[in-house]
Predict the structure.
Amino acid sequence: MKFKYNEATASLEIKDGLKSHFLIVRLLLIVTFVNAILNLSNAQVAFGFMKLIWLVLGMVTAIGLYLYYFKKTATENIPLDQIIGIEERVSFGRKKYFLTLKNGKTRDLLEVHSASDCKQINTILTKHQK
C-alpha cells in the first residue's frame, strides 16, 4: 500500500501518481474548452448541427473543469485535521474510495481496491486524529 503517516507534519502521504493524471486531464479539458470557444466564435457560419455539437461539448468541458479545479484535489500530503473521513461510491459495478476534506474537496484513492485496504486507512486516520 502506498499510504504512510508522516509524524513530523501530522499528515497522510499518498503516493499514487494522481497529480500527473490531474495535470494531463486539466490540460486536455482546457484545450477542448478553448477549441469549443474558437469554433463557436466563428460568426461567418450559421448556427447549425456542428455549432450545437461544439456548444454541448463546451458545456460538458466547462463542468469538467469546474469539478477538477474546485471539487477534486490531487495533493499528496493531506493534514489529518483536514480529513473528514473516507467514503465509498459504486459506479459501473466497481467500488471507488475517496477522502472527503473539510474544504469541500474530495481526494480519490486509486490504490484502494477492497474493504480491507479501506479499513487500514481508517485505522491510520482514527489512530492519529485527535
